[in-house]
Predict the structure of Phosphatidylglycerol--prolipoprotein diacylglyceryl transferase.
Amino acid sequence: MELPLNPIAFHIGPIAVHWYGIFMAISIGIGMYYLYKKAIANGYDDDFITNLLLLVVICGVIGARLMFVLTNTPQWFINDPLQILKVYQGGLSWHGAVLGGFLAGLWYCRKKGKRINPLEDYAVVGLAVGNILVRIGNIFNHEVLGRTTIFAFRRWPDQLIGVSIGIILLIRYFYLQKKGVPEGYQFWSFIFYYQLIRGVVEETFKDTPLLLPIYYNRALGIGLLTTTQVVTPFILLLAYWMMVRVKKDAQIPN
């Protein structure tokens, strides 16, 4: 009999330190370090980058939590608002994190008259690593499960699918770094391919309620369409439009 993974790594007095929080903190640290080093090497001011990173991380976490609660347990806003603060227990929206961090970064860069396109690209490493490590944290929290199936593994390994997406897109980022793509292209193409793979693969097997139940196969553990799949075409159109715009601004043919 397999022992279940404990979501708690250790205790500091009465405070329980969760694996999910540890993995999230590591991913944030890696993302911040990489962006900081690349930005400084590209001529950005130290104080500007430090302030930007703090603002983006704070707004990203806030956006991630609020989006998750809004789309999964909106009753917490009325019935149990303190539950919203328990980020360490899991429950963050990737889309909310990107949206919150991006809007905060865009506002601050415009306020200071700085270019955001290179910084968007450098953020891809943190986003990819975050997707990898937070999905591992989901394993410890026994969440983000795949649907049950008749196959030998009995349940789709949805967390590992998410980990694989992050690894693939992280490798793709460093590959494109050598190709000399226009500034800003890395970020928007990351959004495009992440959403495409997640919508087509991960969400199809994820044990998530169907917003528009056009197809469901209980034996195979396949379902369409979740909320994420419904919004996927709109996110793909936005990301693709931005990719084309970035290329045109750089005067590079599509």
